[in-house]
Amino acid sequence: MEESLIPKLDNRWLTWAAFVEETKMVGYLAGPMVVVTLSQYLLQVTSTMMVGHLGVLPLASSAIAIALATVTGFSVLLGMACALETLCGQAYGAQQYRKLGIHTYTAIFCLILVCIPLSVLWLNMGRLLVFIGQDPLISHDAGNFISWLIPALFGYATFQPLIRYFQTQSLITPMLKCSCASLIVHIPLCWVLVFKSGLESIGGALAISISNWLNAIFLSLYMWYSPTCTKTRVPITMELFQEFREFFHFAIPSAVMVCLEWWSFELLIMLSGFLPNPKLETSVLSVCLNTITTLYAIPHGIGAAASTRVSNELGAWKPQAAHVAVYAAMALAVLETLIKEVVDYVTTMAPLVCVSVILDSLQGVLSGIARGCGWQHIGAYVNLAAFYLVGIPVAATLAFWLHLRGIGLWIGIQVGAFTQTILLAIVTSCINWEKQASKEREKLFQGLQ
């Protein structure tokens, strides 16, 4: 019985037909994932833009609050949820459908637990900002704003695992519909709460919280009532507690991997505040960072698709098919960078931003491949070395010692990104796909015992 549940090894090597077919599959998954990522990011952008019309103080306080919420909360939950790209992706490939559902419930429960200490931190964020020397008025308003984001934290902890639940099964339509529906509701809702309810800036935070929960509710309803989820829909039982150890085994290095990269860019903005004319330097770097964040939705979508295809094929014990998926994903990443390079040239964007776009495109896909293989711990080491042993020191040296200021900071962080891309490429090229698939086969046997 055990042997019948394990798909036979696919010995086909890379052919043009296999490559084209796999590229279509990766593209089919990546396109909607780009829209899903953008729609989630636009929830915060919309609230910030509307609150900005209230004045300089509300804009500054809300921007600081959202940045702190992202660094201390959302990035942590997102990173931990990425563990499901390994667990659920490989379980689905191995046809262990029940285990996929249990992994999802375990992740939701664990992330909600993580939200409790994060909520305590957020409730005291205003005091902490004053303590570290920030303007008391801005700190007070930012503290109020982030306090109203606490419900969004719990909603985020619920819908991020659900996104991975659908993503790893290649069920992209539910995610696309739910994310777009939440954004469509969010825009008028935010306008009413900010300008018509008397809540003003707090209304922007409340709108984000409501929209995050709408995402979670929409996906949950689809999961429970759609016939497409019949195989993986399981009742909530005490069995979810048995998966804690395995989840945190992947979740912790996954969170470190994501946060180390995310925080390095936020540290870049902080360093710009110590340069001459800090308002100008911070504003310019913030614009560059926001541009990169928006454009990063594309490689993130391709990376998510690559993670799904690689983990599915490894779980099904098809190492060669996983290898083909890597080639297809990297081909799409290269194609995307070429298209962006043309657009950047036509619109005369800054050359350094163009370099950042190219590096983000490559490393976004390579990171997805690492997650699909369950190598989050290696990704964490790579990001630590690339950004904190290379990128940040180079940035500080160029900006303060060689007096290149903001340009030096941006060059330094791109040196770190280049190092990250090279290291991830080396790791990917060294993967023994047969050995990797054999490991997943052993896990499958253990799960059936």
UniProtKB/TrEMBL annotation:
It is found in: Membrane. This is Protein DETOXIFICATION. It holds the Pfam family MatE. GO terms for molecular function: antiporter activity; xenobiotic transmembrane transporter activity. One of its GO terms (cellular component) is membrane. GO terms for biological process: xenobiotic detoxification by transmembrane export across the plasma membrane. The keyword Amino-acid biosynthesis does not apply. Its main location: membrane. It comes from Gossypium darwinii (Darwin's cotton). It is a multi-pass membrane protein. Belongs to the multi antimicrobial extrusion (MATE) (TC 2.A.66.1) family. CDD domains: MATE_eukaryotic.
